[in-house]
Write a structure and sequence with these properties.
Blueprint lengths: L2 H19 L10 E21 L7 E8 L2 H4 E13 L2 E14 L1 E8 L6 E2 L5 E24 L2 E22 L3 E2 L6 E3 L2 E22 L5 E12 L3 E13 L2 E13 L6 E16 L1
Antiparallel strand pairs: 1-2, 1-3, 1-15, 2-5, 3-4, 4-7, 5-6, 7-8, 8-11, 9-10, 11-12, 12-13, 13-14, 14-15
């Protein structure tokens, strides 16, 4: 992990916490409370993946993959979120596992080691499909900066893990020649694969804006971070209803990772509607 990128995030988190300690007129929470939620998220995804070529050839192959229809491309998904709160302090975690397929995938270029990139034209791509199996785990500690009969604002600092296993089956019209025409860098038919664990520190804000005393509220969340990624960020918001110990939310969620060229996940973004139910005790 690139620790030099995490230091500014840690300082920002400390500043946010200090600001919260000075907040005036905030309503204090008392005692412990817990919340557990299950949710369904229907994201489409778009990404650029860089697979390592066999050692004999060296270099990488760049693949563009996107899934525009979640329901037809989803193979499996499981998602849960939980929160423990004591007065102004909280710990929140979010865990999801998704197995997504992308029928729209193509080899964009073959990049031999120490040589210029070799673009692969669209006419050379016959077929391509990618499968992404991703575990995304977020864990953070929060502090309430301000709260009242209007809602609350919490500062958050923690980490996010993206554990990714990617595979692409491809079909080309020709073999892609190796450096200086010697051998084959990429056969006309085959499979590329790679996996990586990507750790990032994050800071952010989260909370709810209450709509009078109706039980309806607007949930919001935003974070930004870095580490193994050059940049990662996530936002979501929507509309919710809470009645006693039970609640429901409907909204939109977007998440992005950018590791830069040469990494397995050069770019990866996922966005779509979500539906969540929760219980509080």
């Amino acid at each position: 992990m690139r620790l030099d990128r995490l230091l500014p995030l840690a300082l920002l988190a400390a500043a946010l916490t200090a600001t919260g300690a000075r907040a005036q007129g905030a309503e204090e929470r008392s005692g412990w409370s817990f919340q557990i939620g299950l949710y369904a998220w229907a994201p489409t995804f778009d990404g650029t993946l860089n697979y390592a070529l066999p050692a004999a050839a060296g270099g990488t192959a760049t693949v563009r993959a996107d899934a525009g229809n979640y329901l037809s491309d989803l193979n499996f998904a499981a998602m849960i979120t939980a929160e423990a709160r004591y007065d102004r302090f909280s710990v929140v975690t979010d865990l999801m596992y998704v197995d997504l397929g992308a029928g729209s995938s193509r080899v964009g270029s073959v990049n031999p080691a120490a040589l210029p990139s070799n673009p692969v034209s669209s006419t050379q791509n016959l077929s391509g499909d990618s499968t992404l199996q991703a575990t995304i785990w977020t864990l953070g500690a929060g502090y309430t900066l301000a709260s009242g009969n209007w809602g609350n604002v919490d500062a958050l600092a923690g980490f996010r893990l993206l554990a990714l296993d990617a595979r692409t089956n491809y079909g080309l019209t020709v073999d892609i020649a190796g450096p200086r025409g010697n051998g084959v860098s990429l056969a006309r038919n085959g499979r590329l694969s790679g996996n990586d664990d990507i750790w990032n520190g994050i800071v952010g804000l989260r909370g709810r804006l209450l709509i009078g005393e109706s039980g309806f509220f607007v949930p919001y969340y935003a974070d930004i971070g870095a580490g193994d990624s050059n940049l990662t960020w996530q936002v979501f918001s929507g509309i919710g209803y809470q009645s006693g110990w039970a609640g429901v939310q409907l909204g939109y969620r977007y998440m992005s990772f950018d590791q830069g060229s040469g990494s397995l996940v050069e770019t990866l973004s996922m966005g779509g509607a979500y539906l969540a139910v929760n219980v509080t005790f």
